[in-house]
Amino acid sequence: MSLSYIDIAIVFAYVVGVLILGFYFSNKASKNLSYYFLGGNKLPWYYLGLSNASGMFDISGTMWTVGILFVYGLKSAWLPWLWPVWNQVFVFVYLAIWIRRSNVMTGAEWITFRFGDGRGAKLSHIIIVIFAVISVLGFIAYFFEGIGKYATEILPWDLGVSVLGYELTSARGYALIICILTALYTVKGGMHSVVATEVMQFVIMTIGCIGVGIVAYQTVTIEQLNAVIPEGWKTLSFGWNLDLNWEGTPYPQVNQKLESDGFTLFGGLFVLMVLKGILASTAGPVPSYDMQRILAAKEPSEAAKMSFLTVAVLYIPRYFMVVGFAVLALMYLGPEISAMGPDIDFEKILPMTMNAHLPVGLKGIMLAGFLAAFMGTFAAFINAAPAYIVNDIYKKYINPGASDKKLVRLSIISSLVLVCIGIIFGFNAGSLNSLILWLSSALYGGYVAANVLKWVWWRFTGSGYFWGMLFGLIASTIKLFFFPQYVDIFVFPLIFAFSLLGCIIGTYATPFPNPESVAAFYKQTRPWGFWKPVREKVMALDPTFIPNRHFKRDGFNVIVGVVWQMAQLLIPVYFMIRENGLMVLWSGVFLLCSWLLKKYWWNTLED
Q1: Helix 119-154 vs helix 170-219: angle between axes, to the nearest 10 degrees?
Q2: Residue pair 196/21 in contact by the 8 Å Cβ criterion
Q3: Are the beta carbons of 26 and 173 closer than 8 angstroms?
Q4: Which residues pair with 457 in a beta bridge?
Q5: In whole angstroms, how far apart are CA 80 and each of 64, 71, 99, 566, 571?
Q6: Alpha helices (runs of H) in 262-344, residue ranges in sequence order
Q7: Do 224 and 331 touch, CB atoms closer than 8 A?
Q8: Residue 92's closest CA among 313, 307, 297, 287?
Q9: Chain-centre distance of CA 512, in angstroms?
Q10: Model-level pTM?
Q11: Which of 259, 263, 311, 469 has its CA 20 to 30 A from that of 24?
């Protein structure tokens, strides 16, 4: 990529600004663990919300989103439901409040709050610590590899050198520099630095997103777009089969991508996405940076508002940019994509388009913006995992009386160690790819069943949680090694059923332990669900206790929230492809849903 001095100056100014801001907040982080990992629970919810949105604006996810919009058109709006993308709606409607009421520091500490201190509770606590640390190491390696490839595509300098006989490629050179810079301000300043820099990063990314959308809107006409897309590309609705055919367009080889993805039975895929999405969303956030920001909020109601803001500010600017890159690529990247032959690397669509079709200045802003996207996500993970090592291992089992100064120092050291190990994994990503894939798939595959039951079933125990996670891990591992040809979503019901079996067996293998701890959890958290015996016990001891009767209200708000989120995705897409009638319709849906959420959710928030 050819960069002007203006573009280089913008990127340089951003890097310097991030480091200055990060080090400025370093004194606040050194007070104690709460300040280092949670900002002392003094950060405003709107700062945390913008920070969380920045952390979710990662480079790899954005490149994937541009690629699927290019391939699937409007139907790609459904594919993020695979995660599911609307788990954040469940979080802001009710889960954020339930989580924040615990007053703990980490997801592993929350497990102790839920199950108590028995043998099963300790096993469940340990497996969550392992889950958190290993998943962060995997993500650090993943981000290291991803940012290196991205930087090589867009930056003009060759950083490849030979060090002691080892060939350091340009991609790894870029990745090493960027990761070290990010680790510097994150480790030094803790949560205060992460939040402050991510707020600035979100502003930069939003400016870049709007700029890309404007360039694409002014450059590509609807007649030009219609000439290069297949029939059905602009249609959101679908049948049992995908029925999207790229023959007769400039990109017939895209049909091979459709076949390899395994999504041609789109109706069946949708049913499973909804099933998995409801269960995974009810399970709540994994013990990572998203959960950490919930625990960092001042009050439970502010945790809910923070999660709401994350959704409210993320989708419209992000998809304004995503559809901008997609239409520019469809219009102008024909020769480059055709030159790739049948093996198109769709992740390169974004940097290729950025290189060829963004003007001076905007190119620099987008470079800084995507650098910010990486650094924000990377910093969030760096700040999340050491809390589990220091608070949930060292302080809990090794040295409960350690001073705040020592705990903060150990947090800094553990952050650096994790970054180094993650980078080593990244350097060996080729040989460790199967291991990282196994860890991620197995751990996440075993997460859902146990983490749904922990919220809604009074009899569920720490042993049930441990064995449910373990059974899920076994099922996911068998799928990964023996049935890799099947798309994960299509075998999810089997993995979930096996994990659920482990939950039931583990729960009833021993008598019900820690009834006092469970009653204390229920009274403080006040979840809805199957809690009748515990509820009766709590109300007998405290007649003033008011149980949660808001299941129907929360369910209604979740449905409204999912539609509200979908509208935010579709409004910029319909605007960019000149479907003005549908854009106005979905804008009306967005306003109606906003009013319903204000009346039936925001106005009812309580701590």
Answers
A1: 70
A2: yes
A3: no
A4: 530
A5: 10, 14, 25, 11, 16
A6: 266-283, 289-296, 300-332, 334-339
A7: yes
A8: 307
A9: 35
A10: 0.86
A11: 311
Q: What are phi and psi of 104, to 5 degrees?
A: -105, 180
Q: How far is the C-alpha of 423 from the C-alpha of 426, rounded, in Å? A: 5
User: Which contiguous run of DSSP H or E holds residue 162?
Assistant: strand 161-163
DSSP classification of residue 77: G
Torsion of CA 196, 199, 203, 209, to 10 degrees: 130
- Pick from 256, 233, 220, 237: which is nearest to 346 by CA? 256
Say whether domain 5-429 belongs to CATH 1.20.1730.10: yes
Q: How far is CA 182 from CA 16, 93, 189, 198, in A?
A: 11, 33, 11, 11
Q: CA 466 → CA 36, 63, 275, 531, 586, distances in Å?
A: 29, 36, 23, 21, 44
Q: Is 164 left (phi over 0), alpha (psi -120 to 50) or beta?
A: left
Residue in 436, 508, 437, 497 with CA at minimum distance from that of residue 471: 497
In the predicted model, residues of the chain with pLDDT beneath 50 are 431-437, 439-440
Residue 356 confidence (pLDDT): 76
Q: How far apart are CA 318 and CA 325, in angstroms?
A: 11
For residue 166, the model assigns a pLDDT of 55
String of DSSP letters for 335-375: HHHHHTTT---GGGHHHHHHHHHPPTTHHHHHHHHHHHHHH
Nearest-angstrom CA–CA distance, 26 and 226: 53
**Closest residue by Cα to residue 344 from 328, 325, 329:** 329
| pLDDT on residue 189 | 59
pLDDT value, residue 92 = 94
Count of beta carbons in the 10 Å neighbourhood of residue 101: 18
Phi-psi region of 345 (alpha: psi -120 to 50; beta: other; left: phi over 0): beta
**Crossing angle of helices 488-508 and 429-445, rounded to 10°:** 60
**530 has which bridge partners?**
457
Distance between CA atoms of 283 and 450, rounded to whole angstroms?
8
For residue 167, the surrounding DSSP H or E stretch is: strand 166-168
Measured distance CA(314)–CA(242) in Å, rounded: 28
Three-state DSSP at 593 gives helix
Contact 264, 352 (CB under 8 A): no
Among 235, 258, 241, 282, smallest CA distance to 487 is for: 258
C-alpha distances (whole Å) from 570 to each of 235, 406, 567 are: 11, 50, 5
Structure tokens at 475: 């099922």
3-state SS of the chain: helix, strand, coil percent to 5? 75, 0, 20
pLDDT tens digits for range 307-349: 999 888 888 988 999 999 999 988 888 777 777 766 677 777 7
Q: Which of 307, 276, 226 is nearest to 579 (CA)?
A: 226
How far apart, in Å, are the Cα atoms of 207 and each of 88, 116, 200, 363, 367? 24, 47, 11, 12, 12
pLDDT of residue 432: 42
Q: What is the dihedral of CA 267, 268, 273, 274, to 10 degrees?
A: 70
Paired sense of beta strands 166-168 and 161-163, if any: antiparallel
CB 450 within 8 A of CB 468: yes
